[in-house]
Amino acid sequence: MKIDVVKRYFELLEQFSTNEADYREILHPEIEQTEYPNQLTDHVAVSHFETLLKRIPNGRKLVNPVNPRAPACARKSRPASGPPRPASKKYS
Which end is more exposed in the chain, N or C (fewer Cβ atoms within 10 Å of the end residue's Cβ)? Predict the structure, then answer.
């Protein structure tokens, strides 16, 4: 069922999975991702299946809380386990 594929994709993202085999099972081989200019990319970038698979580990590095280029929401301290803390509350 298609919804199961979507759920699995989000599970992999939430787990920061870098297992290429997991993504090969759910991504269509003719996938094309277009990334428009943003804080990390100053031009339009188009990636295809193999390129996306190679870039999976880079995504995990990007949202690593100790990475100074990571988005502010990723750099905030998080508990050792469990979901991220709500952004609206302040914790010491």
Answer: C
